[in-house]
Amino acid sequence: MVSTDSGSGSSARRKRADARRNEETLLDAAAAAFVASGVDVPVRDIAARAGVGIGTIYRHFPTRADLIVAVYRHQVEACAEAGPALLASSSTPHAALVRWIDLFVDFLVTKHGLAEALQSDDAAFETLHAYFIDRLVPVCAQLLDAAAAAGEIRPDMDAYELLRGVGNLCIGADDNPRYDARRLVGLLTEGLRLR
């Protein structure tokens, strides 16, 4: 007996992989649009960046809140996944930490307008801060622990405290073109080093 559905499993997996890639492309386009124009950017602009129709966006994300939450989670996941990869590929744990903090700053910058949305009464946003903490603090702690174990940084740095400090340095970067948050964050990470 010959099976008539040979390959249907691989076809379904390929379709799922394509759908994931398409969704990631859409989320990356939305994030870029948020950076450029804030979270209130017209959906048609996001669709144009992603190379899809507006209907495709609404099919995946029926409301703006759904899209904002998905972009936020996508970026948190990308930042979380980058930590171990940087630790494995960087010349030193401190170099990995610095590169990861730089990605974290990029993430904070892409939250342009998101803070205001997160303060709204929309229930979709309620769990995002806890999700952010749960995913990123352990990654930062892993990088700090590796750098401390290598004797590169002070051993008493708390991951939550560091992320909070970096976040505070990034506040106001949008409002003042003379304010260089990235330079100040660089001074902070350099200050962690043992002399």
UniProtKB/TrEMBL annotation:
Recorded superkingdom: Bacteria
Gene3D superfamilies named among the record's database cross-references: Tetracycline Repressor, domain 2 (1.10.357.10)
Pfam family, one: TetR_C_43
SUPFAM superfamilies per record: Homeodomain-like, Tetracyclin repressor-like, C-terminal domain
All residue ranges annotated as the HTH tetR-type domain in the record: 20-79
Keywords: DNA-binding, Transcription, Transcription regulation
PROSITE patterns according to UniProt: HTH_TETR_2
InterPro entries hit by this protein: Homeodomain-like_sf, HTH-type_TetR-like_transc_reg, HTH_TetR, Tet_transcr_reg_TetR-rel_C_sf, TetR_SbtR-like_C
DNA-binding region positions on the chain: 42-61
A GO MF term: DNA-binding transcription factor activity
Protein name: TetR family transcriptional regulator
